[in-house]
Specification:
Oligomer: heterodimer
Radius of gyration of chain B: 13 Å
Number of helices of chain B: 0
Largest sheet of chain B: 7 strands, mixed
Number of strands of chain A: 12
Distance between the termini of chain A: 41 Å
Low-confidence stretches of chain A: none
Number of helices of chain A: 0
Structural class of chain B: mainly beta
Strand content of chain A: over 45%
Number of strands of chain B: 11
């Protein structure tokens, strides 16, 4: 079965530090890749997505992610985090055209200290 | 547009009681989904509806039923609630499945079964 691994359960950073959250998936075929964010008490919102083209994807709020096919990875990055980035981040994968099922990682909780 | 709406926001049930969670979207999306979110588990797909008139099981369908009432509405029913069904339930919708189409999430229903 397809699986999605997020390496860190909880990351604590100071404001202005750089962020990289890891995500690896197990499916070898064509995939669509997503990062969602869930702010405390809120629903999931899309940060960015990749389905084809440039493997470096830019999203909202200064986030970006790089798809490395050979490593089955889609890591999320931000050069300088803010306190308002405190949230839980979820990587998700589906198998491309025709697939309805989105498989989520278990999430990484990010705490940014002012 | 309201996006994806869910009712109720909170619910407490006793073991064995039944209830229906309601979901509606106003984005004219074809596909709708029900997930549950548990701490440390990410989101897991319960059921989905690729289009009006169809429903399919996801990863964790046991103990649930769904109805795609029309294009806008997709309900989730617990016939006999169990403590293991204590969770936060999210409904989502999407336009084209799998082709880079993102899922839009509702605000969630927090369900406690005692």
């Amino acid at each position: 079965a397809q699986s999605v691994s997020q390496h860190n359960h909880h990351v604590i950073l100071s404001e202005a530090a750089s962020l990289e959250l890891g995500c690896n998936y197990s499916y070898g075929g064509t995939v669509n890749l997503f990062w969602y964010v869930q702010y405390p008490g809120q629903h999931l919102q899309l940060l960015l997505k990749y389905f084809s083209g440039d493997p470096l994807v830019k999203g909202i709020k200064g986030f970006e992610a790089e798809f490395i096919k050979s490593k089955f990875s889609f890591n999320l990055r931000k050069p300088s985090v803010q306190w308002s980035d405190t949230a839980e981040y979820f990587c998700a994968v589906n198998r491309g055209a025709g697939s309805y099922q989105l498989t989520f990682g278990k999430g990484t909780k990010l705490s940014v200290i002012p | 547009n309201a996006g994806v709406t869910q009712t109720p926001k909170f619910q407490v049930l006793k073991t064995g009681q039944s209830m229906t969670l309601q979901c509606a979207q106003d984005m004219n999306h074809n596909s709708m989904y029900w997930y549950r979110q548990d701490p440390g588990m990410g989101l897991r797909l319960i059921y989905y509806s690729a289009s009006e008139g169809t429903t399919d099981k996801g990863e964790v369908p046991n103990g649930y039923n769904v109805s795609r009432l029309n294009k806008r509405e997709f309900s989730l029913r617990l016939e006999s609630a169990a403590p293991s069904q204590t969770s936060v339930y999210f409904c989502a919708s999407s336009s084209l499945p799998g082709q880079g189409s993102e899922q839009y999430f509702g605000p969630g229903t927090r369900l406690t079964v005692t």
